Amino acid sequence: MDSHTSASVNGDVRAADSSQSDRQSRSNRSGVIIAVLKAMIVLLELICLWGQFVVVVMSGDIVATYPELASARWPYAIAGVLGVACFEIALIPLWQLLTLVKHHDVFSGKAVSRTDAIIGCAIAEAVLVMFVLLYGSLAHSEYYDPAQGISVDVAMGAAAMSLACIVALLLLAAFVLLLIVMRSLLKDAIAQRDELADVI
């Protein structure tokens, strides 16, 4: 083997080692990022559990301050608890997606079902927000005011709450549409990978 050939082989070996080192470094970085994201998911789950407890307690405090809203306590409290639960459940397929990324298994088709689960949770959340919006806009209750000695008609919603619900619905619609586009791109990528695998 002459010196030119030897130098060429050594250069190829060094390039291969460098490429493998770069891949290992990227893999280590992505592993750290995934671990941090999973820790954040655990933290979010704990915050959500605390939030569900707070929703029930706060509903009681609001009724104590505004007794005319007593009939609306449990519809709002249940909707709040279920709304937080939708977010909690959506974190489970998100965790599974991160695991697929860690194992380089995103294009196996499993990611599509996890994305569908997140979309389903977002749609369920939108249904709950719609319920709160309609209930707050349409529901009324008769409340006997002991100070005035008369019964008054009380609306169960407020303009600020209705506005917040409309904004939440718009954000959820945008999120669902974005996920549907991402799901479509993912399915196309999986199909292209399968075609390449068949060709090879």
What is the arithmetic mean of pLDDT? 84
| Category by helix and strand content | mainly alpha
The strand order across the widest sheet is: 1-2
Q: How much helicity do the residues have?
A: over 70%
Uncertain segments of ≥5 residues (pLDDT<50)? none
SS strand fraction: 5-15%
Give me the Rg, rounded. Answer: 27 Å
Quaternary state, please? single chain
Task: Describe it.
With 200 residues, the protein is mainly α. The chain contains four helices and two strands; from the N terminus they run H-H-H-E-E-H. The chain has a two-stranded antiparallel ribbon with strand order 1-2. Strand 1 and strand 2 (150-155) form a beta hairpin. Helix 2 runs antiparallel to helix 3 (110-138). It is elongated and about 85 Å long. The relative contact order is 0.08. The model has no long low-confidence stretch (mean pLDDT 84).
Compact summary:
This protein is mainly alpha-helical and 200 residues long. It contains 4 helices and 2 strands.
Task: Please give the structural blueprint.
Layout: H1 3-65, H2 73-102, H3 110-138, E1 140-145, E2 150-155, H4 159-199
Supply the key terms.
single chain, two-stranded antiparallel ribbon, 82% helix
